[in-house]
Amino acid sequence: MRLESSALALLFAISPLACQKAQVTAKPVTAASPSENPNSRPQLLQAQSMGVIKDVADDPGIMKILAPKQAEIRATFDLPLCECPKGLFRGRNGEENLLGYWVTDSMRARASKILGRPVKFALTNSGGLRANLPAGRLKVSDIYGVMPFENELVTIEMTGQDVLDAMKQGILHRGSEPSSGVKLVLSGTVDKPDFKMTWEDGAAIKPDEVVTVATTDYLYNGGDSIPALKKGRRPFTTGVSIRQMLLDACAELARAGKPLEAPALGRYIIPPELYAAAREHRLGK
Q: Do residues 11 and 134 share a domain?
């Protein structure tokens, strides 16, 4: 269930933004007379931006060209996927990011399948998940709403200490970033926070242990202030976009006749006052 990149670009032509076009008015440029400047040449008109407005009519010729592709994209985006009885939400004000948990669980599962070996940990950024999944029958457009970007699934090798550092950086930068494979309990005070992290089965994370990690090319290349990921070695770009991975996961559930259920709570335990301090960059200061 793949869409070409060109078709994605055309999607914006059928969105409400299609009627918001920048109006440009040509403004003549006064040229010097030949007597004042013998070397003068004809001057090009200078464009003057008039801002984004809604009352400019669509060009009939362009709309005629776009119409068949618009219909194709609308039909594709309305294709049904699996059932999601309760929806999946990013969480607010320190609530656990169940949508992010599902995305990172899917990253680990897909990376493990590609590599043919276990992937111990996955991490993504909550800012890259741009919409919640509604309750009910999901459609292709719902997944595009969650992941409108072309981020790709990447695997790297990290030490246990790198994993601990990445988790801590995610907390300090944004309050938390969704992950899979690790449990975290934050306690202590705003001035002296105490980070307790284990693998999902409760086993200790050994600082010198080398594990395989799934993340995105965006984060590995330095996006969203998690520098520990840059320490990852032997990077492997899978060629699978995060969006296509999610579409495939939904399609697999549909074929099996299973719904998309929310992951279990309890992956992150962060008191509200410590979460607020982290969001305000006061934690541990």
A: no
Residue 166, in any domain of the structure: yes
Nearest partner of 182 among 259, 118, 104, judged by Cα: 104
Q: What's the total number of domains in the chain?
A: 2
Residue 156 lies in a domain: yes
**Number of other residues whose CB lies within 10 A of the CB of residue 255:** 9
Q: Is residue 284 part of a domain?
A: no
Buried-state track 117-153, b at ≥16 Cβ within 10 A, e below 16: eebbbbbbbbebbebbbeeeebbbbbbbbbbeeebbb
Same domain, 111 and 67: no
Read off the pTM.
0.79
Name 110's Cβ contacts closer than 8 Å, sequence gap at least 6: 153, 214, 238, 240, 245, 248, 249
Among residues 193, 164, 177, the alpha carbon closest in space to that of 128 is found at 177
User: What's the pLDDT tens digit per position in 146-158?
Assistant: 999 999 999 999 9
pLDDT digits (tens, 9 = 90+) for 49-107: 666 566 777 888 888 888 887 888 788 899 999 999 999 999 988 899 999 999 999 99
